[in-house]
Model the fold of this input.
Amino acid sequence: MTAKTKSSPLFLGIDTGGTYTDAVLWSEAGGPSGKVHAKAKALTTRHDLAVGISGAVDAVLQKAGTDPAAIKLVSMSTTLATNALVEGQGGRVALVMIGFSEGDLARDGLKAALGTDPVVFCPGGHDVHGNAAKLDLSGLEAALPELGASVSGFAVCAYFATRNPAHELAARDLIREKTGLPVTASHELSAKLGGPRRALTTLLNARLISMIDRLVAATEGFLAARGIAAPLMVVRGDGALVSAAFARQRPIETILSGPAASLVGARHMTGLDNAVVSDIGGTTTDVAVLDKGRPRLDPEGATVGGFRTMVEAVAMRTFGLGGDSEVALEDGALNPKILLGPRRLVPLALAGMMHGEVVAAELERQLRAPNPGRMDGRLAIRTGVPERLAAGLTGAEAKLYEMIGAVPLAVDRLLTSNAQNATLNRLVSRGLVHVAGFTPSDAAHVLGKQANWDAATARLGAELFARKRDGRGQSIAASPEAISERVLTTLTRLSAEVILETAFAEDGLDGAATVAHALVQRAVDAHPGIARLSVALDRPVIGLGASAPLHYAGLPPLIGNGCVVPEDTDVANALGAVVGQVRVSAEARVSQPKEGLFRVASGETVRDFNDEAAAIAAAETDVRAIAAGRAREAGTDSAEIEIATEFRVSTVEGQRMFIEAHVVAVASGRPRIAV
Done:
C-alpha cells in the first residue's frame, strides 16, 4: 500500500446526504477508471454533521489501512441544499429590494418563496445602461436593529444590478457594518437579467448559508483532527469542483451537488455515454440524461422545490420520492391509493434504533386503542440545530417548540387541535423539528429486504398503518407484510413514472407527468383497456443509490429498457466528487448608451470607451483576469481559459450598428492537491 500511495495520490470523496454520509477512498492507479480502495457509510447527523462525517471517513480509513496523511485531496458532494429547498427549509432571512415595487414580488414565484420572511423596499437601482436612479437606504437603516436580531442573513437585489452593482454594494456594506450578518448580493450569483428571479436566487442562497457553513466547518474540523492536511473541494450543481471557501459564499450553487456528482460517478463506473441516470436517496429521486458522455445542462437555471433559479446546473429533475418519504393515504376514496412524499420523515426503524423503548412504547400504546387515530405512528423530535436558528418564531411556534425535546414525543400527545398541526409543520420547514413516521425504508425492514435499523419498530409502524380505514370503513391491509409490499410496489411504480416524465420533458412534450402516469398505470393494470399503450426508452437506466438494487429490480418492464446498477452504486456521489474538474466563468457586457459611447460592465466595475474595439478588448481582458482569479479561489492553479464573444448588431441603410456584446470567459483545471 505504501508504494501505491507514493506513486498515485489518494483522494477522499465524501457525500453528505439526507440520510447517509458516504465516504470512498480512490486513486488514479488501477486502470482508466482508477481504483476504489475502500468505501463506507454512516448516518447523517443533522444536529452535528461532524459525527456522521467522522463515522464514514474513520470507517473507510480503517478498511483501507491508510495513513490519513497520505490523502492529498478531499472532495465533497451534498444533497443538503437540494433537500432543504425541496422540503422548504432554511434560515429566516430579510430580502432587500432596491428599485423594485411590491408588485414585483408576484413574479417568478418570489412571493411564495419569501413566505413570512421580511422584505424591505428602497428607492434606487439602475437602467439597462447602468445609469443610476437616486438611492435612499434610510428605510433599510432604520429597520436593521430589529432585523439584525431576528434573521440569520440578508439577500440584496437591485434593479439592473448586473449592469451596475453600485447600489447593491452600498446596501451590502451598510448591512455588514450595522449587523455583522452574512449578506448575499444578486450580482455575485448571476449576470443574467430578470430581477425577480435573480432576487429569488439570492433569497435562497441567503437561506442556505448557515447550513452549508455548518457542513464545511464540520468537515474541516474533522479533517484537522485526523491530520488530513489536504484541500477541501465541494461539487457544484453543474458537476464542477470549487473550493470550500467558494461554496460557503455561494451555497445556492451547491443545489443539485449530489445529483451532479452522481452523474459524474455514473459515467465513470459504467462507461455508458448515453443513459438516463436515476439516483434514489432517502429524501429525493434525481433523474437526468447523459448524452455523448456529458450531462445535459439546464440553460434556464435549475428548478428545485418548484422554484426556477438562475443557477446553471445539470438538467436534473428532482422529485420528493425516496426511501424515507412520508407514506400517506389518499383522502376520501373507496379504495385509497398509497401516497409517497414529498416530505422526508425519520423512519420509525431508525428512530427505534436510536431511542429504543421510548418509540416502541408509544406505538404499542396506539395499537392497543380500539380504533386507529389520524396521528398514529407519528413522533416529533428536535433536530438539535443551534438555538440562534430558532429566532423569529411566533408565540404559538415557540410554545410548541418548547414542548418538543431530544426524546421522541408522540404527536397525538403533543397536539391538541388541527391548527397545531400546521404549527408543527412550520417548525419542520424551519429545520427545527423532525417528524418520525412510516416510510418505504420501514416497509423494507418488515419484509427483510433491509436490516440496518430496528425491524421490530418498523413492524409496529406497519401494523398501525395497515389499520387505517378505506372509504368503506375496512382496514386497508390484512397484515404488516401486505401493506409493506404495497408501499414498495408503489415506490417502484412512481420511480418509473418520474423516469418517463423526465424523458418526455427532455423531448419537449407537454403534460409529461400525466402521460407518464397513464403509461405506467396501463403497464401494471391487469386490464389495460381497449387502447393498449406501451413505451420504451432509447437508452438504459443507470440506477444509483444504496436502495437502487431493491427498488429498481422491477423497472425494466415499466420503462421498456434495461436498468444497470453498478457495483459501487451506493457511493456513486462520493466517487463522482473526486473525479471532476474545477470550472468557473466570468461575464462582461458592452452596451452603447448613446452613439459613440461604449460602456463595459464587468465584475463590480463600469467603464466607458469611445471606441468599440477598445471596449471589447477591455471586456475580454477583464473577464480573463476575473476568471483566473475565481479559478484560483475555486481551487486550481492550472486553469485553461477560453473566451467567447457574442455580438448583437443591426444593419441600417447598409451600415452596421452595434447594439451589445456579451463576453464570457471559462476557466477549467484539475484541483490543486497537497504536496
